[in-house]
Amino acid sequence: MLFEEIEPNENFDLRRLQSLPSGRWEAGILKMLWGKARVRIALAQSDGLVPIDYWGGDHQSSFIILGFLLAILASLPEEIEEHDLARIFPEQEDKDTGPQFWQSLYRASDQARSIYGDFQE
């Protein structure tokens, strides 16, 4: 799944990307108070449910996390179902962006590749 940057909105007000070619998924960064941000992945036409929602810390860290998530998503087909996506990505424990969080993202990357290979459209 590849993404292109589009105009930010209220759900992704710092950065917003849309999956190609159909725009089924959106990924991006939402500003929070005191210079903090959240990194999210959700269906573009959803009822407000955000299956992947990570505390990103400061804006710089959020951009790093978003880049890593986009790299994992590159191994997945755009048609992936919400529940399948949620099974690949780990839960984040209480705003943790330390070594354990990154290790869980590395495992998610390995899992995505083991299930879908290096997906290409």
Blueprint (SSEs and pairs):
Blueprint lengths: L1 E5 L8 E6 L4 E7 L4 E8 L8 E7 H15 L8 H7 L10 H18 L5
Number of strands: 5
Question: Structural class of the secondary elements?
Answer: alpha+beta
Radius of gyration: 13 Å
Order of helices and strands: EEEEEHHH
How widely separated are the two ends?
8 Å
Strand order of the largest sheet: 1-2-3-4-5
Helix content: 25-40%
**Integer count of domains:** 1
Mean pLDDT: 88
State the low-pLDDT regions, or none.
Answer: none
Main beta sheet: strand number and arrangement? 5 strands, antiparallel
Key features of this structure:
121 residues; alpha+beta; 3 helices; globular
Describe the overall structure.
By secondary structure, the protein is α+β, with helices and mostly antiparallel strands. It has one domain. 33% of the residues lie in helices and 27% in strands. The chain contains 3 helices and 5 strands, in the order βββββααα. It has helices at residues 59-73, 82-88, 99-116, and strands at 2-6, 15-20, 25-31, 36-43, 52-58. It has a 5-stranded antiparallel β-sheet with strand order 1-2-3-4-5. α1 (59-73) runs parallel beside α3. The chain is globular and about 40 Å long. The mean pLDDT is 88.
